[in-house]
Design brief:
Number of strands: 7
Helix content: 40-55%
Structural class: alpha/beta
Radius of gyration: 20 Å
Largest sheet: 7 strands, mixed
Strand content: 5-15%
Number of helices: 13
């Protein structure tokens, strides 16, 4: 969307990434029988540790060097290969293809340690910098808010934030940045309040900050492009599991998995089938998996998590 513009951020303590990952028990139930596992959003290595503990060889991928440092501390070097790259990059997809996993996990979104580190700029706490990058390269949230056109901003808030007042919010940001550049969370929060009114609060801020984060990291485009390549890299009967936290993310995963499970994807009006004529696998289970009530109570950030799993055809 925008050209990369930025400087490196400060490195934080790797130990901060050591936390209980979302849907820990549900992912643990998928471990038996896995020999080669890819965690394409490694984070602190919490999910990967389950597979490594059962003897699986692991390829861990993350675009955040701090997360990789934490994962190295947790998982060690034996049986684990690390790669610093966005999961949808050509480099990452080539590594996954060469690795030939029988299980691949994508845990999308931002980890709690990233959210809690104000220097990373994912939070709407007062005074936090508008960064929001998953890694250390590319345009920041401040760059986007200060440089994107009104139309681009309207698309971000409408498509990624489901905001009915997206046009007004985009105009307000353009007006405000003409007087003072956006630099901290306060600038965006104040713009949101000016448009949505005094009753707006944390749920609105979280939703619209998330929309900016998705745009900054080009998350939905990368996901849609990466899923077919990841599926094709799996061994026959292998599984791909995706944990999403946003309706746009889940929509892409849901539709991809449903299309793969169909035997025919020809247009309904076409009289003869000219497509692949067979399903590429099946949803397993058919319905999504959500965090339990106990997990949601213990970790409110897990409430929006949705897990979908697809198993490729045996032959």
């Amino acid at each position: 969307m925008l050209s990369p513009l930025w400087c490196r951020a400060a490195v934080t303590d790797a130990a901060a990434f050591e936390h209980q990952p979302v849907l820990h028990a549900e992912i643990a139930a998928l471990v038996p029988g896995v020999a080669r596992m890819v965690d394409a959003t490694l984070g602190g290595g919490g999910h990967a540790a389950l597979f490594r503990g059962a003897g699986a060889t692991v390829l861990g991928i993350d675009r955040d060097p701090r997360a990789l440092a934490a994962a190295r501390r947790r998982l060690g070097a034996d049986g684990v290969t690390y790669l610093e790259a966005p999961y949808a990059s050509d480099r990452a997809l080539a590594a996954i293809q060469e690795f030939r996993p029988d299980f691949l996990l994508l845990d999308l979104g931002v980890s709690s340690p990233q959210l809690d580190d104000e220097a990373r700029g994912f939070t709407f706490r007062a005074g936090a910098p508008l960064d929001m990058r998953m890694g250390d390269d590319g345009a920041t949230a401040a760059d986007l808010l200060n440089e994107a056109s009104e139309g681009e901003l309207r698309t971000v808030f409408a498509d990624f934030g489901d905001e009915r007042q997206a046009g007004r919010l985009a105009r307000e940001i353009v007006r405000r940045r003409g007087n003072e550049p956006f630099a901290t969370s306060d600038h965006l929060v104040n713009a949101i309040r000016a448009v949505l009114g005094p009753r707006s609060g944390p749920p609105d801020f979280a939703r619209l900050f998330q929309a900016v984060r998705i745009a900054v990291n080009d998350e939905l485009t990368g996901l849609a492009e990466a899923l077919p390549a990841m599926r094709d890299a799996l061994t026959p009967g292998g599984r791909i599991a995706v944990i999403s936290y946003h309706s746009g993310e889940d929509r892409i995963v849901k539709h991809s998995f449903q299309d793969w499970a169909r035997s025919c994807i020809c247009p309904p009006e076409q009289p003869l089938c000219t497509c692949r004529g067979r399903p590429l696998g099946r949803l397993e289970p058919r319905k999504p998996v959500y965090p339990t009530a106990d997990e949601q109570a213990a970790n409110p950030r897990s409430r929006s998590a949705t897990l979908r799993i697809f198993r490729t055809a045996e032959v």
